[in-house]
Amino acid sequence: MNIHEYQGKELLAKYGVGIPAGIAALTVEEAVAAAKQLPGPLYVVKAQIHAGGRGKGKFKELPADAKGGVRLAKSIEEVEAFAKEMLGNTLVTIQTGEAGKQVNRLYVTDGVDIDKEYYLSMLVDRKTGRVAMIVSTEGGMDIEEVAHNTPEKIATITIDPAEGFQAHHGRAVAFALKLSGDLNKQAQKLAKQLYTAFIAMDCDMVEINPLVQSKGGELLVLDTKMSFDSNALARHPDIFALRDETEEDPAEIEASKYDLAYIKLDGDIGCMVNGAGLAMATMDIIKLNGMFPANFLDVGGGANKEKVTAAFKIILADPAVKGILVNIFGGIMKCDIIAEGIVAAAKEVNLSVPLVVRLEGTNVQQGKDILANSGLAIVPANDLGDAAKKIVAEVQAVA
């Protein structure tokens, strides 16, 4: 689960992390009122969407030379003008894709006199089974170019969760940032605070870009993105309450109600599979046969008729879907139960696109019999390769 910048900063502040003063706003009037509560005379007006690259982003509704989603205002009047331009308009960044995201809220912060920008992030390194702290002296809007062109400027410090954060980890972070004196001590303290927060809140990722050194000699978090392990949110109702469903795909929200793992993609073959590995293989073989998957959808090992029906409705709600491939290996999940769900769903949604089904495993013959006797135009497949070839052929025949 992702949250907004202002929410992430509020959470980090509870762990002692240095954050410039700022106030969230949903309207132009609230943005102006927020600015009046800040010291000034400089203010930063920031669009709040779940995507990076806001500073370089462009608004669809504004002229091409208009400023992006992060703007420096030198007066209350400029705060008001920027808020009017940004709220309700669509911001397109390198991470949103061409569709962009509508800006529904702003974050008005106090301006900071910046001396130097750094980069610091934390994530779970699946390869090492450790928490990785990634730091660079080259923070700011061009961090992607730094990673691509000069990777030697990025350092990674891994922390064994069984050992926890140690003093040498803090020193390694400060050394990588090339800080000395009091700033060195601040960096060590900040690294420990961030690790403590990361573990305590079951984070997937914390990114601070930029981490800045102010001319007053403080290390401050100027921007942050945070995401959390969705499987751990039951332990954190306060964090779950921060969820902003307007930033999520409606189909993914609907899928979460039925405990379905769904991610929308850009192709035209809808997929319904049980098991993440099998789902990935299914998507690969569709592409190998010349077309592209429209989604990742894992119904899990214990799906019932209700979940299968919901999965069908979610797939068909995507207007790009021209055909559906169901690939089920029945272990815990029985093939006859899946077949009943497929038939019920196809009848309920009045299926109008080609459907190819491959079943294997527990009660496979009963499942095939249910599909064959359904009276529906369901194309059976013998194996995954056969299924992929058949769905591609069916879709191309209709086209």
TrEMBL record:
Catalytic activity: (S)-malate + ATP + CoA = (S)-malyl-CoA + ADP + phosphate; GTP + succinate + CoA = succinyl-CoA + GDP + phosphate; succinate + ATP + CoA = succinyl-CoA + ADP + phosphate
GO molecular function, one term: malate-CoA ligase activity
Cofactor info, note text: Binds 1 Mg(2+) ion per subunit.
Enzyme Commission no: 6.2.1.5
Keywords: ATP-binding, Ligase, Magnesium, Metal-binding, Nucleotide-binding, Tricarboxylic acid cycle
Pfam families: ATP-grasp_2, Ligase_CoA
Binding sites annotated in the UniProt record for ATP: 46, 53-55, 112, 117
GO biological process, one term: succinyl-CoA metabolic process
Binding locations of Mg(2+): 209, 223
Domain ATP-grasp: 9-259
Record-listed substrate binding positions: 274, 331-333
Cellular component terms per the entry's GO annotation: cytosol; succinate-CoA ligase complex
Pathway entry: One-carbon metabolism; formaldehyde assimilation via serine pathway; Carbohydrate metabolism; tricarboxylic acid cycle; succinate from succinyl-CoA (ligase route): step 1/1
UniProt cofactor(s): Mg(2+)
InterPro entries in the record: ATP-grasp, ATP-grasp_succ-CoA_synth-type, ATP_grasp_subdomain_1, SUCC_ACL_C, Succ_CoA_ligase-like_bsu, Succinyl-CoA_synth-like
Residue ranges crossing the lipid bilayer per the database entry: none
Superkingdom per UniProt: Bacteria
Quaternary organization: Heterotetramer of two alpha and two beta subunits.
Annotated family: Belongs to the succinate/malate CoA ligase beta subunit family.
Role according to the record: Succinyl-CoA synthetase functions in the citric acid cycle (TCA), coupling the hydrolysis of succinyl-CoA to the synthesis of either ATP or GTP and thus represents the only step of substrate-level phosphorylation in the TCA. The beta subunit provides nucleotide specificity of the enzyme and binds the substrate succinate, while the binding sites for coenzyme A and phosphate are found in the alpha subunit.
Protein name: Succinate--CoA ligase [ADP-forming] subunit beta
Lineage: Bacteria, Pseudomonadati, Pseudomonadota, Alphaproteobacteria, Sphingomonadales
